[in-house]
Design goal:
The chain is an alpha+beta fold. Helices cover about 20% and strands about 30% of the residues. It is built from two helices and seven strands. It binds zinc ion.
């Protein structure tokens, strides 16, 4: 268990497309364990491997129901719309209003190479889409817009 450095702002690793994981080995398990430690230490709800400088398609999320690990995830479907403020451990001190689908179905592998499907709504949907974007070198700042008039958090 170890904390990894979180890359921020204009670090090149945040803007590159990550490669799929091909081996579900001890090295992957160490990465996942370190990423969870790093996420909790920074009080985040999600962390993607490119944020710690590893260009692999891996992220972890904990929106309050315990950690879930996603490897080689694929968004299967989305529905609805939600708007809310979002932040990112790679852009500390910043927040912005972002609209995203309210519901997401995602398929991924667990750390042992088994596939699973998960449906996320509201905060979980937001986190899934935010972290999945990191795997394609996309950061949430590109989506930030003015909140609708009278929007309350
Ligand atoms: Zn982020």
């Amino acid at each position: 268990m170890a904390l990894r450095k979180i890359f921020t702002d204009d670090a090149p690793c945040l803007y590159k497309t990550a490669k799929p994981v091909t081996e579900f080995n001890e090295r992957l398990h160490t990465l996942l364990d370190d990423m969870k430690d790093t996420m909790y230490n920074a009080e985040g709800v999600g962390l993607a491997a490119p944020q710690v400088g590893v260009l692999r398609r891996v992220f972890v999320i904990d929106v309050g129901n315990g950690p879930v690990e996603f490897i080689n995830p694929k968004i299967i479907s989305t529905g609805g719309v939600q708007g809310g403020y979002e932040g990112c451990l790679s852009f500390p001190e910043r927040r912005g209003y972002v609209e995203r689908p309210n519901c997401v179905v995602i398929r991924a592998f667990d750390r042992y190479g088994n596939t699973f499907e998960l449906k996320g709504e509201e905060l979980m949907a937001r986190a899934l889409l935010h972290e999945n974007d990191h795997l394609d070198g996309k950061v949430y700042l590109r989506l930030v817009k003015e909140p609708p008039e009278g929007f309350k958090e």
